[in-house]
Design goal:
about 425 residues, alpha/beta, Aspartate Aminotransferase, domain 2, Aspartate Aminotransferase, domain 1, 2 domains, 7-stranded mixed sheet, about 40% helix, binds pyridoxal-5'-phosphate
Length: about 425
């Protein structure tokens, strides 16, 4: 663990100016490849004996700073940056599942993730089991099978910001020798470090609040370094492979090559290498700049979300509000435990009106921007049942309580009074 606290690390970790011509701002290394020097150095580079970059698909000094910074912000062992949150989710799950394993998860997930189970994982022979009521953690235990390789949950789910008892779910995973992978996108590492509660792997869409300005698509996988992949459940980590051979042509396995970072090491050597969703150096730079103000932005977004929630609570055009900090939320106690700084800035509510009033309302906000994103510096509005979560089957919709009247608000950095006035004028237009 670092001697420094989160806010110091977020602007400094993983970067030493002296190693980069004393540049204060992280340089953008806009290069595809790196000269190999002499042929003996090339031998070492290609035998995984030297970590210097070879080719930007696999590593790049700018991307490297982002990976190191995220590792340090989590007190983890390693990280890998990728071209999108979907790449992070899918590479992490493929990496855990191996050949034909099972993933145990819930229906309370980002719509694209749910959809990928059917369209990607089935093709790889990977089965996905869905816990029907994840609030009852014993249901996780009951569904674990001999070939289950991972439990996957969102720490603060999209769109309803539900919270699961991460610590108990980690205990169940570890009792069965399997990893807990958490999608911490909505929470961000400022609000929650899942490693503190036993998660083994954390994934992000850095597109959202982590970068925070709606100007980049990016993803990350971070690993704790504490999980034992030699426990018999992960033969794909222990099988000796020709492409990992040493100078004497002796095959080696992933754990020999990456003893400290087996998960992200394998994800890089296999999935980033061969599926290729590399993050560009410029995009890594944008995420780094975003992280520098993460705490300040998320704090302000939370205070805006709280002000708007108070306004919505008194509004006859609102039939329900879902946010863990609402006193009637079933996640109120879990929010106190896992999210003492605030349970995020996404607030969803039920629109109490006809379909045409619903459509007028969506089109009438002037500050809240109607778009499929969250975590931006600007406040955003959307109707998830018809857009971001349109892929959900009727059964998945039922499991997540996603009804057609749902409006999701993601709070930005504007003035809270202006945000409330914006909603008020949109309600007024819808209910003339
Ligand atoms: C947006 C999102 C993703 C996908 O990330 P992209 O960067 O859009 O590929 C994954 N998980 C969650 C929770 C998200 O909100």
């Amino acid at each position: 663990m670092s001697e420094f606290s989160f806010d110091t690390l977020k602007v400094n970790a993983g970067y030493r100016p002296a190693e980069h011509n004393n540049a204060v701002s992280v340089p953008i290394y806009q290069t595809a490849a790196y000269t190999l020097g002499d042929s003996f150095r090339a031998d070492r580079l290609f035998a995984f004996e030297d970590e210097d970059p070879i080719y930007t698909r696999l590593s790049n000094p700018t991307v490297d700073v982002l990976e190191r910074r995220m590792t340090e912000l989590h007190g983890g062992a390693g990280a890998i940056a990728l071209a999108s949150g979907m790449a992070a989710v899918s590479y992490a799950l493929l990496n855990a599942a191996g050949r034909g394993g099972r993933i145990l998860t819930t229906a309370r997930l980002y719509g694209g993730t749910v959809d990928s189970f059917e369209h990607i994982f089935e093709d790889f022979g990977i089965e996905v089991d869905i816990v029907q009521n994840p609030d009852d953690v014993s249901q996780f235990e009951a569904l674990i099978q001999s070939d289950t390789k991972a439990i996957f949950i969102e720490t603060l789910s999209n769109p309803f910001s539900t919270i699961l008892d991460i610590e108990k779910i980690a205990e169940i995973a570890h009792n069965h020798g399997i990893v807990l992978i958490t999608d911490n996108t909505l929470a961000t590492p400022y609000l929650l470090n899942p490693f503190e509660y036993g998660a083994d792997v954390v994934v992000y869409s850095a597109t959202k609040a982590l970068s925070g300005h709606g100007n980049v698509i990016a993803g990350l996988i971070v690993e704790s370094g504490k999980f034992d992949y030699s426990n018999g459940n992960y033969p794909h980590f222990t099988k000796p492979l020709w492409f990992l051979r040493d100078a004497d042509d002796k095959k080696r396995n992933m754990l020999e090559i990456f003893p400290d970072i087996p998960f992200t090491g394998r994800a890089r050597a296999i999935y980033l290498n061969y599926l290729g969703a590399a993050l560009s150096p410029f995009d890594a730079y944008l995420v780094l700049i975003g992280i520098e103000t993460l705490s300040e932005r998320v704090s302000k977004q939370i205070s805006n979300a709280r002000a708007v929630r108070a306004y919505l609570e008194d509004n006859p055009s609102v039939s329900w509000i879902r946010h863990p900090e609402a006193t009637d939320s079933r996640y109120f106690e879990l929010a106190k435990k896992y999210f003492p700084k605030g349970a995020g800035s996404v607030v969803s509510f039920g629109f109490n009106g006809t379909e045409s009033q619903f459509r007028i309302f969506l089109e009438s906000t002037k500050i809240y921007s109607y778009q499929a994103n969250i975590g931006d510096a600007r406040s955003l509005i959307i109707n998830p049942a018809q857009t971001t979560h349109v892929e959900l089957t009727p059964h998945a919709r039922e499991l997540t309580d996603l009804t057609p009247d749902t409006i999701r608000l993601s709070h930005g950095l504007e003035d809270p009074d202006d945000l409330i006035a914006d909603l008020a004028q949109a309600f007024a237009k819808a209910f003339v």
